[in-house]
Each structure stands twice: as structure tokens, then as C-alpha cells.
């Protein structure tokens, strides 16, 4: 199939399925077809690969709403580095995807534009916050998409949608052009149908970028080459204490079975301990909200997007814009973050959370003296029903229990499908690796999915 006809097919599928899935906030037919025609006869690394992009990653000339009313009319005037690198490698952005508002959420339900739906069961959430990007891949519209990760927003929806999702090491992919949520935790992440698709995209976008001072000058390995490495000789760490309370029976069973499956492929397994993991959620929701309260101060009605009308003065305009522009979850986080940073509480909350964060990281450093990767569930449950947790922020925050600590520590982690629940919903396992070991994670993911494919498809799937 030619590049142009392939992109046409992708756009047709996206348009056809979107009324049911709501995974795209915009479908960029004109620019995608133009680009396809431009590169139709050139040799490029990604050869016209169609890519869907979360709506908090800047794409020049396209709306970049962050799933928020406050940016509903905002058009980015530059490309994020990940986008310009993809473009140079011959990938084509076909649309921008639905997300929890400013990436705050685990179900896509905080989107100002309504939730994306899980293609395995339209009454269920796809996970979040990068739910739209996960659905775009899971429903067969695109092979790969970009999301963002602050505490699990790529791995958790990947798990709930039965696809692969990678959060790289902090600093592996430039954050230039990613709208900031919590800068010390934020990463761009990648979804793929499988580990090979993820490796293709990571190889193009990883690496130092002078436009982001926190991007690291660490050599980028050949991820494609790494996929074929032998599992024999690898050691997988299993933190048994994380398989206890609060974990769905189906998930426990399938994830523990994947430990055995790895052994059958020749891996060794060892028990590891992550004693500070249990503080992950508390630490995360202090640090993430603190940084969010500061980052979101820029949305004031003056510089970007929406501005409230009929305000009598400047101060009232700020208030009214933020009151009308932000949704409830974003306001909750701004208030929490402002509180934990206030002079009376800074030491009790923010500063203490930073200390525990260092201990979470130390847990990982110790564990990686014994193993190449740590295996856990990605999410404590399969995809839940739309509305089931939306009135209970704490229940929602607990969806991230297995994912937040990798962001706190800065280490890479991947979610790979490892089975189906009794109701036929996908379950993901998480593999967490040492700093810069994305190649190891992709290798393990590839070997696993080749030997133990999921063998099922969502009910809504592009032919
Ligand atoms: N679900 C988490 C939150 O609500 C993580 C979000 C993310 O990774 N962007 O903060």
C-alpha cells in the first residue's frame, strides 16, 4: 500500500470509529494527506507511519487543548521536539487525542470533551490520562501513538486497553513542547500494538535536545536490535508484598502466571523488596499537585486560549477565566498543591514528600543490584465502568498504586498485555527497569508477546 492510500485508510477509520470511541479530539485530514503526498517518494525511517498524538503535546497549526475548556481554542505555534523528530523521520500526525484535563486522571472522565471509550467494552473507561492515544492504537486505527506520563498515564491505559505502553527514563525524551503538569515527573511516553512499534518510535524521538535542559546526553541504543536478545540469563525481580490487598483476583493470577511464563523462557526470578512503595501514592499526590499548582498559574486568560467575558477588572478576569476554564479535578489539584507549598505546611508535606521520594528511588537502586527488571501488575483492576469512580477521587488515585513510583524514581517502565480476565478484559503486567534500560524492557516485552500473544481483539476494531 502506498503512503497516501495508507494515510487515507487511517483517516477513514478514525472518522468512522470516533463517534463511538471519542478517542480523537481532532482528526487532521488535510495536513496528513498533504504530508503523505510530500514524502510519498522519499525513503524515510518510519516510511509514512501514521501517528496519533495526545492533545497536550504541541503540534504546530493544530489545536492543542489539553482536554480543557481553558485551551479549547488554543492552536500551538510550534512543534514539540518529539513531533519534529517524528516528522523528519517520515511519521505523519493524523490527529490529536482525548485525555483527562491537563493529564490529571486515570479514566479520561475529567476531559472537558467527554471520555474516550474502551474498545473492549464501550461502557468502560480506557484508563487515563492518555486514554485517547491508547484507544487509537487498541482500536486498530494507528500502530503507535504518543501519550504523556506523570504517574502512570501511559502504562495504565495501555494495560486497560490490551496494548503496550512505555514510560521512558526521565530525561530520555525531550519534554520541549509537552504542556507541563508536574515537571519533575513528566515524560512523553509511547503506545504501540506491540514492543516493536514502540521501539520504532522511541529510536526516533529519544536523545538529548538542547531545547530541554533536563533531557539527558546518554547514548541511544539500537532498540530494534535489542528486541531479539535472549531472555535466558535475565533476572526478573518479584516484589511479593505488592501482590496483596487491593489487587483483583484475576489480575493477581494472570500477572503471577507471567512470572512463570518468563521462567519457561529461561529467565531467573528472585524476590525483591520495595519497602517504600506503599508511600508512593501519598508522596506522588503531594509532589504532583505542588508542581501543578505552579505550572498551571500561566493559564490566566491573558497569554493562552480562553478568556472569560464581562469581567469588570483584571483581577476579576483572572478569577472568572480560571473559574470557568478549569474543571473540578484541576481546581482540586491546584488547591491541594497551593496548600502543601504554603509556608505553614511546606515542611510537613512538600519537604517530607521529597525525602520519601529519595527513599523510593533508593529502593529501586538496591533492587536492581539483584535483577534486570521488576515485574508487578500495571493496574490493580481491569477497566472499570464509566462513572464508577468519578465521584470518589481517592478511589481514582489508587488506580495509580503500581505506576507512580517509577515516575518518582525516574526509572523506565513498560506495560505489556499478559492475559484476559474472566469477563474477557485485558490485563497488563508492568516491567520496571534500571535507568536508561528501555532496551532491556522492550526486549523482555517483545520476547513475552511473541511467546504468549493475547490472542483476542476488542469488539470495536478497524478492519
Ligand atoms: N492518574 C495520575 C494522575 O491523575 C497520573 C496522571 C499522569 O500520569 N499524567 O495524576
The gist of it:
By secondary structure, the protein is α/β, with parallel strands linked by helices.
Helices and strands, with pairings:
Blueprint: H1 3-21, E1 24-27, H2 29-39, E2 50-54, H3 81-88, E3 92-97, H4 131-138, E4 144-149, H5 155-161, E5 164-167, E6 187-192, H6 195-205, H7 223-226, E7 235-238, H8 249-264, E8 268-271, H9 280-295, H10 314-325, H11 328-341, H12 347-367, E9 373-377, H13 393-397, H14 404-409, E10 413-420, E11 426-433, H15 438-451
Parallel strand pairs: 2-3, 2-4, 7-8, 7-9
Antiparallel strand pairs: 1-3, 4-6, 5-6, 5-10, 9-11, 10-11
Helix pairs in contact: 1-2, 6-15, 9-11, 9-12
The protein binds glutamine.
CATH architecture of the largest domain: Alpha-Beta Complex
The average pLDDT is 97
pLDDT below 50 for ≥5 consecutive residues: which ranges?
Answer: none
Bound molecules: glutamine
Provide a count of the helices. Answer: 15
- The helix/strand class is alpha/beta
What is the level 1 CATH name of the largest domain?
Alpha Beta
Task: Please give the number of β-strands.
Answer: 11
- N/C terminus separation: 15 Å
User: How are the strands ordered across the major sheet?
Assistant: 1-3-2-4-6-5-10-11-9-7-8
Number of domains: 2
CATH topology of the largest domain: Amidase signature (AS) enzymes
Please, what is the CATH homologous superfamily of the largest domain?
Answer: Amidase signature (AS) domain
Rg over CA atoms, rounded to whole Å, is: 21 Å
Characterize the largest beta sheet: strand count, sense, and whether it forms a barrel: 11 strands, mixed
| Principal-axis shape | globular
Beta-strand residue percentage: 5-15%
- Which sequence of SSEs, written as H and E, runs from N to C? HEHEHEHEHEEHHEHEHHHHEHHEEH
* Share of helical residues: 25-40%
